[in-house]
Automatic annotation (TrEMBL):
Annotated ranges, domain Gfo/Idh/MocA-like oxidoreductase N-terminal: 4-120
InterPro entries reported for this sequence: Gfo/Idh/MocA-like_OxRdtase_N (IPR000683), Gfo/Idh/MocA_Oxidoreductases (IPR051450), GFO_IDH_MocA-like_dom (IPR055170), NAD(P)-bd_dom_sf (IPR036291)
This protein's name: Dehydrogenase
Domain GFO/IDH/MocA-like oxidoreductase, residue spans: 137-233
SUPFAM superfamilies reported for this sequence: Glyceraldehyde-3-phosphate dehydrogenase-like, C-terminal domain (SSF55347), NAD(P)-binding Rossmann-fold domains (SSF51735)
Top-level division of the source organism's lineage: Bacteria
GO molecular function terms attached to this record: nucleotide binding
Organism listed in the record: Alienimonas californiensis
Length: 346
């Protein structure tokens, strides 16, 4: 099979890694990188033995597929040009900051008969895959995504910058169930957009997910906890440590836990320290060391060759954006309610 000829549009914080990985994938030929910063494009091109251009349109007739890692506000324009030329696409998340634009990109890809993948890389995180395998459709889930302020992605707020990852993961974890209610609060800290957000999603099956995103935090954290019938699965998506908490036979078949207090001489401190072990089993789950971005790009390039469906395709990304828009609407509504004068009781 001949090599898949690809280009990368945008070689900033993410695009340079796309170029590095694509240059090393079997069966992939990195033809060029494109960036308005010609010096940056030149450096990356020299590292990987490809061409550097200022605009990806210059080399569309030489490639089969394009990875778009330009700023979000340019996605519709860059993706539109690539799709008009019939090229397969991977577009970094979010697909757009506007749902209508995202729908148009997805529609154009479907009409052109090309593959459209969207860079929700956490779907390829082995730690999340372990959570999904052990607790699909939980009763409750909690997501936390915290980051120091990075002085990038300032064309969007924390919902499209950070929370969009977990909105997509939550839809996946709850097996694509419809969200029937959203509550959200947000505040700006360093920018004129929301920098810190908390949201609650209620799914049609009764499950609930709480999400927190803060891009002005002293430290970074990416965690998920899923509470299901077989216990709780807790994952650190950064360190890839996954723990499974489940009931021991002493909890499921023994006397009630609080009966331990029937003995007047019971040592409460010792009982406290014995909870995890005596009544709750803790199991650390082995997790693959596979690189998530490499897996995402390999999945995309494979789909480009075979016509398969990427793990996160256009409609899936649009659904996440619709949730993001709902969260933003609720943030605006809650701010309006908070600003309204309080009526005193007569």
């Amino acid at each position: 099979m001949s090599s898949l000829n690809v280009a990368v549009a945008g070689v900033g914080a993410l695009g340079r890694h796309h170029a590095r990985i694509l240059a090393g994938l079997d069966g992939v030929n990195l033809v060029a990188v494109a960036d308005r910063d010609r010096k940056a494009a030149g450096r990356i091109a020299e590292e990987h033995g490809c061409r550097a251009v200022a605009d990806v349109r210059e080399i569309l007739d030489e490639v089969d597929a394009v990875s778009v890692a330009t700023p979000t506000f340019t996605h519709a324009d860059v993706a539109g040009a690539c799709l008009a030329a019939g090229k397969h696409l991977l577009v970094e998340k979010p697909l757009s900051s506007d749902v209508r634009e995202a729908e148009q990109i997805a529609l154009k890809a479907r009409t052109a008969g090309v593959v459209l993948a969207v860079g929700h890389v956490e779907r390829f995180n082995p730690a999340f895959e372990e959570v999904l395998a052990r607790c699909s459709r939980p009763r409750y889930a909690r997501f936390e995504r915290l980051s120091p302020f990075a002085f990038r992605s300032v064309d969007v707020g924390a919902v499209h910058d950070l929370m969009i990852h977990d909105l997509e993961l939550a839809r996946c974890l709850f097996s694509g169930e419809e969200v029937v209610a959203v509550q959200a609060l947000g505040t700006s800290i360093l920018t004129d957009r929301e920098d810190a957000v908390t949201a609650r999603l209620t799914f049609e099956g009764g499950g609930v997910a709480d999400l927190t995103a803060n891009r002005v935090n002293p430290t970074a954290a990416r965690t998920v906890q899923a509470f299901g019938e077989r216990g709780v699965v807790a994952a650190d998506l950064t360190t890839r440590r996954v723990l499974h908490y489940s009931a021991t036979p002493a909890l499921t078949h023994g006397p009630p836990v609080l009966s331990a207090l029937d003995d007047p001489s019971a040592d409460r401190a010792a009982l406290r320290d014995s909870v995890f072990g005596r009544w709750i089993k803790t199991e650390e789950i082995p997790v693959s060391g596979r690189d998530a971005l490499t897996a995402e790009l390999a999945d995309w390039t494979s789909c480009c060759r075979t016509g398969g469906t990427p793990r996160v395709d256009g409609p899936t990304a649009v659904a996440a954006l619709e949730l993001a828009e709902w969260v933003l609407e609720e943030i605006a509504a809650s701010a309006k309610r908070a600003a309204a004068p309080v009526r005193k009781a007569a």
